[in-house]
Design a protein that fits this description.
By secondary structure, the chain is α/β, with parallel strands linked by helices. The chain has two domains: about 180 residues, Response regulator (Rossmann fold), CATH 3.40.50; about 170 residues, Response regulator (Rossmann fold, 3-Layer(aba) Sandwich), CATH 3.40.50.2300. The chain is built from 16 helices and twelve strands. The strands form three sheets. Strands 2-1-3-4-5-11-10 form a seven-stranded mixed sheet, with helices on both faces. It has a three-stranded parallel sheet with strand order 7-6-8, sandwiched between helices. The chain binds beta-D-glucopyranose. The site of beta-D-glucopyranose (BGC) has 12 residues, from loops.
């Protein structure tokens, strides 16, 4: 795509407008989880989501809930997904800017490419919102997310609770961290280490292997955890996994040695898979982040910017790289274990039918899932 753009630029075709020149590529950009309203014109809000493989949310929840929020306000929106491809992320942004979007909302795949996009948007007079992930040194106009340090604290406390419930004796704890290029992963880790470190310090837990998973890749997580498991002679007795996908990767490895359920594993996102792993007893907890509220808060800001207003935000966060403050909305996460799965279902975030399908029907009944 990029090389095509460059080639087109070289022959002076780009003056036709990004839209006409890139029709073919744009059609695959609108694949799963798109919820895309397209066509030329511009004067829309552009949204770029990161991938469809690292968490259920990006292909399912966020596009659906964002679309609903914009539709409700009758504001045209173009929601696309970069499918984990940084070049595609940038070319979608180029096309949206060429199309004349007024506001651009992005979930970056890393801060470098994220910042390049924000810079171009700003140069074109487009207002910008960092959605869920802060782009370091990016200088977006607004940031909408959860309190991600609190997310990590809930994971740390959840793991401690599960280990204590099992009367685990000086357990060896492994960390499967999120992507090293995602500022959220840094924040989650700050949160869970603040809970786990005192346990290492007082000798009640032992610090085990600690690794980040490139781009939150679930397959890589499986390989990383296999290595951890083998290198420790299968002595890991607790896994702090930064989201449900990474947690599931660890659970799959534990299953091979029938150690699933005996080694508590954490997660995040309250995905159908994560909740089912909890019901099965293989996952100790997840963190529910009400994406509807996040989507609505971000859409609300975008709609005001689209209408030429200058909305205020209740908080601000400091960009650790630039030192600048970004006006922010930060929402509250909730810890979920077997006892309160109903919170997620009652909120309409996951469908009971999906969670309680097949062999999970009996587990749902046994656990009072309504
Ligand atoms: C999001 C999580 C998600 C992860 C992997 C993070 O930035 O906050 O909800 O699980 O990325 O996609």
């Amino acid at each position: 795509m990029r090389s095509k753009m460059v080639a087109l630029m070289a022959v002076g075709l780009l003056s036709l407008g990004g839209t006409a020149a890139c029709t073919d590529d744009k059609s695959d950009a609108a694949s799963p989880g798109g919820g895309t309203t397209r066509g030329g014109g511009g004067g829309k809000v552009g949204v770029i989501l990161p991938d469809t493989t690292t968490s259920q949310r990006w292909g399912t929840d966020d596009p659906k809930l964002l679309k609903a929020a914009f539709d409700e306000a009758d504001v045209p929106v173009d929601i696309q997904n970069a499918q984990g491809d940084k070049a595609k992320f940038q070319s979608i942004a180029d096309d949206m800017i060429a199309d004349g979007v007024k506001v651009l909302m992005t979930v970056n795949l890393d801060s470098g490419t994220g910042k390049a996009v924000l810079d171009k948007a700003k140069a074109a007079g487009v207002k910008t919102i960092d959605y869920d992930r802060l782009t370091l040194n990016g200088g977006a106009d607004y940031y909408v997310s959860f309190d991600n340090v609190v997310v990590g604290e809930l994971q740390g406390r959840g793991l401690v609770k599960c280990l204590e419930a099992q009367n685990a004796v000086v357990p060896l704890v492994a960390d499967l961290n999120g992507s090293p290029t995602d500022n959220n992963a840094t924040q989650f880790k700050l949160g869970y280490e603040s809970i786990l470190q005192p346990k290492y310090d007082d000798g009640s837990f032992i610090k085990g292997p600690d690794q980040s998973v490139t781009d939150w890749d679930n397959k890589e997580a499986g390989a990383v955890f296999t290595e951890m498991w083998q290198q420790t002679d299968r002595r890991i007795r607790g896994v702090l996994a930064a989201n449900d996908g990474l947690g599931n990767a660890a659970i799959e490895v534990l299953k091979k040695d029938k150690m699933n359920g005996k080694v508590p594993v954490t997660g995040q996102d309250a995905t159908v898979q994560g909740l089912q792993n909890i019901l099965a007893g293989d996952q100790c907890m997840t963190v529910y982040k009400p994406i509807k509220k996040e989507a609505e808060a971000a859409a609300n800001l975008a709609i005001k910017l689209y209408k030429g207003e200058r909305p205020t935000a209740p908080k601000r966060v400091k960009d650790p790289e630039s030192g600048a403050y970004v006006p922010a909305v930060l929402l509250d996460p909730t810890a979920i274990d077997k006892k309160n799965i109903n919170v997620v279902i009652k909120d309409g975030f996951v469908d009971k039918k999906a969670v309680c399908a097949g062999r999970f029907a009996a587990l749902c009944r046994a656990n009072g899932i309504k």
